[in-house]
Structure formats: C-alpha cells, structure tokens
Amino acid sequence: MIRLFGKNYESTKANASITFYGPAGITVFRFDVEFGRIYLFHTHTPTSFTELDVEFRAYVEKKMPRILNWYVIGNWIAQWHQDIIVWENKVFKRAPFLVKNDGPILKMRRWYNQFYLSKEDQESLADPTD
C-alpha cells in the first residue's frame, strides 16, 4: 500500500499473483486493488548467447487512479532493476546449498535442464566456421 508522510492509505493495498510461462519467457503479474486491476507483462527475449532484451508492458483498468498505476508499476520495475547486479553475477552450482524454505528448487532445475544447450551445441554456436 502507499505510505505517504507517515500515513498508510488502506485503499491502495494490493494483492498480487505472479505466473511464469516458460524459462526466461513471460512473467505475468496481476495486481488487484480496490480501484481495479493491473496486468504487468515482463518479458525476456534472448538476443545473443549472454544477452536478453527485457520489456515491461502494462494493461490497467481505466478507473485506476494514474498515481496508483504509476506507483505499482514503477515500484516493481525499480525492484527488478536492483536485481540486475545479482543476475549479471550468477554462477551455476551443481549442488547448491539450499534451506527448507527454498521450496521445490531442485524440481524446477530439472525441468529447466531441458532448455539448456549441450556442450557440443554451445561450441558449434561459438565457432562461426561451422
């Protein structure tokens, strides 16, 4: 919810649901607020072996106050922007250290594995003479 000059505005409280479609593909955020609903699409499109184009597109009900629309979407993009340094410095750990609250990470990693290139495929992409 929006907190302004020490005052909470209960009518701006949002419930959010997040759905992921495919690896590094589309993430759909649905924010339900007293004034209406916001859908925010966050997409990742690989442009090279190590780069992505990232885009955000929002669809907002007309009755939603613009300031609330700006706050919800701007807040999410700002949080995502702070994570860039994490994403740029990730390393793969075959056996990561996990704790109980990490959830089904290993199950997700096994599913994601189908989308990775084999070493041979990676090498052929890196060698332009093939």
From TrEMBL:
SUPFAM superfamilies: Bet v1-like. Transmembrane segments: none annotated. Pfam families: KshA_C (PF19298). GO terms for biological process: cholesterol metabolic process. The keyword Oxidoreductase applies. InterPro entries: KshA-like_C (IPR045605). Keywords: Oxidoreductase. Residues 19-116 form the 3-ketosteroid-9-alpha-monooxygenase oxygenase component-like C-terminal domain. GO terms for molecular function: oxidoreductase activity. This is 3-ketosteroid-9-alpha-monooxygenase oxygenase component-like C-terminal domain-containing protein. It comes from Adineta ricciae (Rotifer).
